[in-house]
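Dear all,

This email documents one entry for the complex benchmark we are building for the journal club exercise. For each entry we list the sequence lines for every component of the assembly. Then comes the predicted three-dimensional structure of the complex as a token string, followed by one or two observations. Please use this as the template for your own entries, and keep the labels exactly as they appear.
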Amino acid sequence: MRISYREAMRTALHDALASDPRVFLMGEDVGKYGGSYAVSKGFLAEFGPERIRDTPLSELAFVGAGVGAALGGLRPIVEVMTVNFSLLALDQIVNAAALYRHMSAGQFHVPLVIRMATGAGRQLAAQHSHSLENWYAHVPGLTVVAPATIDDARGMLAAALADPDPVIVFEHALLYNSEGELSDAWRACDLTSAQILRQGRDVTLIAWGGTVAKSLEAAAALAAEGIDAEVVDLRVLRPLDDATYIASVRRTRRAVVVDEGWRSGSLAAEVMARIMEQALYDLDAPVARVCSEEVPIPYAKHLEDAALPQPAKVVAAVRRLLGKG
Amino acid sequence: MFEFRLPSLGAEMDEGTLLEWKVKPGDVVHKGDVVAVVDTSKSAIDVEIWTEGTIHELVLEPNRKVPVGTVMARLLEPGESVEHAEAEMRALPAGAVSAGAHAAVASVGDAPAAAAPAAAPRAGTAAAAAPSRQRVSPAARLRAQALGLELTGVTGTGPEGAVTLDDVEKAAAAMRPADRAAAAAAVATTPAAAVAPAVAGRALAMRSAIAAAMARSKRDIPHYYLAADIPLVHLQRWLAARNADRPLTGRVLMAVPLLKAVALALRRFPELNGHHVGDAFVPAESIHVGVAISLRQGGLIAPAIHDVDALPIDELMRRLADLVARARALTLRSSEMTDATITVTNLGEQGVELVQGIIYPPQVALVGFGRVTERPWIEDGKVSVAPVVTASLAADHRASDGHRGALFLNELARLLQQPGQLDAGAT
Amino acid sequence: MTMGTTTEADDPTLRQAILETLQRIAPEVSPREISPSRPLRDQVDLDSMDWLNFLLGLHARLGVDIPESDYRKLVTLDDLLRYVSAKRRG
């Protein structure tokens, strides 16, 4: 069945709301407006204002309310419009949700799911376009996922809700309109493993979220040059599934990490460091990365495109690793 | 601006470890100044520079093992300003610094393969500075180690000219079967060396260095061998008289007049004194005699005494004593390691009569002396007992012929009959 | 180390001094393994430069000067002991 990412996500939310009365959705514009990205369109009429709650523009308050509801036994899904805005709620996420299990010696769990859009590419300018997944992937006590495929958009939410501890779900804003085949694999979604989306012998492209599709596009272009690229979708940004991408790099001996975040202190840097730690002697070239330029993401289309990782940049990085730069 | 590169300190040396800088940026250096101490497989060597200048930048950090030809330092030419040098650096395209600037490699006379930078950087790659050492990917290095493959000379096709796994596999496939077997055998002995203490590691390294040089010699050099018995009645008498009234510190060993006589004889036989470089023999302008010195811990080293033909006997004795002491203490200078134009070996100490030596490449001759023994000697129809030494010559047939070699031994014999002349420095 | 061997010049201190000097030249030598009555240069790998340095060491330590013409008298460790003690007495 061919569906859009938005439909997959919407179906997942609908399933969750329909199957578990403890589940409710809360956030800015999720009710009357139907969600900034139209993921919850029609939900208000179907599930009522008790379970589809529009909130004021106050991230700290409504994420905090979600933490409280989770502690109280509900299964809240809190939607934050973009990761940029989530910074207002950092205290509730990092100092409350992520810590309670540890500080209560396991007596309290916070079964909270926070969805947020991330990334650029829609000309929404700097305050709506950044990729700060690495901020959350840094924090013990959180599970951080980035569904990039139709299957994951369909299946990851249920796995997140089943987790007794807080899970952050990053949905790249460019993905909602993407389409693909939904396979049965969505039913087996876990929150632990990375996945090889394309097998190849010459280089491993490591990506997640919005850069997965760009990496697949780059791999197709490289194939035309006779370079056989493997593409790994990390899926889970915390905890990282080292085994999968390290094994891939050991086979191909070269790696390019594709990360829409800024280079300095990026998640790409963490992945590269782990490759050095675990696979240095298997490497046949320095590990490379393609990240966003270190500027606030521009509004103008041509500048925005230039600032972001693009398939052509990935192709160029691979060529350099193969001594063909 | 010019570069100072790691010189080859012997035919078998292809890498070295910088132990210590003896200079710092801003220091003015003159010809012959020791600028660094470098550990080779044989010993720690004081490396000299032969171009005047001011140290601008020390590129290489101590304790790094690098191939011969690696840029160690950059220097300002006399009168050159820092600004000029830096402008020159910026003006040069990446990678051209090494090729364009004249490199102050100590003159070695060695085969170009050993002294040349190991891998040329790919033209037009990245704006990185000229690579300071051969780039080898970790995977390629590991594989080369496992195969026992020498990476010097393997051209890299990876990023910035790095040697990749593929390059190693191809180079290994191109190796001759015999070499491959030898390499594998060397690898098989390596684990023991890895756990052995440093001394044993050095001994093993020296063994393999000697193995490489001698194998190269026997492979490449068409040796011919000549020998002649030389009576030393006059020399022994002259030496005894000379030493009789001298304190220990003033005494001269038999080896000294033998060395001197070799050097003087060489003046008339330039085809035995020099180096075979590339496809041609290059005669040396000076006579620097390498003296084979066996080390107590095992192994052999043949550092040079410079201008032996011009040294008075007492001075030559002082130089020889100093050289032996420093060779055994492993503190030699780079010029001593590289400058020899011929080698003399004196296995007579071990009681043998005849030495058939292996030439130390790229030299073209080796003179051996056996033990001085009392033998019947016939002269003018009369038999007498005389001290006699068998002198031998192993020479490179590409550079000289047996007839000239024989004349050289005759000349040597003649000189040794007139010991008084040896001290004069002229024939 | 040399128990049971008696010579006219068996001076343990002098013997010790000679052996120590020898060891500076040839560190691999074990004094216990030196037979005092066998030729020294058969037991220790000494070339003529080593021998000269050994004699220089003895001179520095014991103040004896050994002319070259006497070298042939000095074959064994006992020879050396006798020679050096005679020189010092004289």
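Observations: The first helix of chain B runs from residue 82 to 91. The interface with chain C takes residues 240, 243-244, 247-249, 251, 253-255, 296, 320-321, 324-325, 349 of chain B (CB under 8 Å).
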